[in-house]
Specification:
The protein has 10 helices and 14 strands. By secondary structure, the chain is an alpha/beta fold. The protein has one domain: Rossmann fold (3-Layer(aba) Sandwich), CATH 3.40.50. Strands 4-3-2-1-5-6-8-12 form an 8-stranded mixed beta sheet, sandwiched between helices. Helix 1 crosses helix 5, helix 6 packs parallel to helix 10 and helix 7 packs across helix 8. It starts with a strand and ends with a helix.
């Protein structure tokens, strides 16, 4: 296929582009620098600008403001929302106006859609939760719906935490845990929905080629784990103690609303659609994933 990808320079995007090319697909990257080279198209979602697209078979939209790199001020929250809504709206308008639009469009979203729901098992049929990220995901996903009238198959990829020692949450956790300073946060009972980087990339490709998949799709491993379980397992694999306990108030005081939603919310989402459509996980459980990811650590 000829696949349009936004966010191709990001942590997930780079790995996805490499994987797609390995599978024999041609990748067209949406970039923010003009005249960047072959197989690129310039765009500026904030200004509503996008270059002329060549004929494409599919699109994968991954770009968006980083949600975990700084405290959620009013300005930061606006950037998080606008970066997702405006870019998705621009792509929807562009695809709707194409004489031959792509057959499918995969748009990133997040398990934050479900909000804090304790130990409830959450499938794609579960209701929206409360909170800033839940509202963002709702608005984000809503912007994809207009293209259905053009016969485009649309899927919203509700990612869990993507695990890799080369980026994201796991990379940030490794130093304190290697120093023996790791441990559970709060009561440790909050569930973490996660997926290994290898599975994230492979599952995106599965959604791309599986015509049965549309609507929301939970891109998470089939065995979510509690924060306490994650902490103890990481310490065990690194052969380090996990005796430190970080009280609930710490992330709330240090990070405010961001700390509450990203660290203390419990989201136990399940990959119902991936399993129903025959996706086979490379790393179905946290121990398998961590031992593979950290084998050289």
């Amino acid at each position: 296929m000829k696949v349009l990808v936004s966010g191709s320079s990001g942590f997930l995007g780079k790995n996805l582009v490499f994987y797609l090319k390995q599978k024999g697909h041609e990748v067209i990257s949406l970039v923010r620098t003009q005249n960047k080279g072959e197989n690129t198209v310039y765009w500026n979602p904030e200004k509503g600008i996008i270059g002329k697209l060549p004929p494409i078979d599919a699109a994968i939209h991954l770009s968006g403001e980083n949600i975990g790199n700084e405290r959620w001020t009013k300005e930061k929250k606006k950037k998080i929302l606008d970066s997702r809504v405006l870019s998705t709206r621009l792509l929807a308008k562009t695809f709707s106006e194409m004489t031959t639009p792509p057959k499918m469009w995969l748009c990133a979203s997040a398990c934050g859609f479900y909000g804090n729901q304790g130990d409830k098992k959450l499938t794609e049929e579960s209701p929206k939760g409360k909170g800033f990220l839940s509202d963002v995901c709702q608005e984000w996903e809503k912007e994809t719906q207009s293209v259905k009238a053009k016969g485009i198959r649309v899927a919203s990829l509700r990612f869990g935490i993507i695990l890799s020692p080369q980026g994201g949450v796991l990379e940030k956790m490794l130093i304190p845990f290697k120093l023996g300073l790791g441990g559970p946060i709060g009561n440790g009972k909050q569930y973490v929905s996660w997926i290994s980087l290898d599975d994230a990339v492979s599952a995106i490709h599965h959604c791309l080629i599986c015509e049965k998949i549309q609507g929301p799709v939970n891109l998470v491993a089939p065995e979510p784990i509690t924060n306490e379980g994650f902490s103890k397992l990481l310490g065990k694999i690194l052969n380090r103690p996990t005796v430190f306990f970080i009280p609930n108030m710490a992330p709330r005081i240090m990070l405010g609303e961001m700390g509450e939603e990203l660290v203390l919310y419990s989201i136990r989402s399940m990959p119902a659609k991936l399993l129903e459509t025959g996706y086979s996980f490379i790393h179905p459980d946290m121990e398998t994933a961590l031992r593979y990811l950290l084998k050289n650590s």
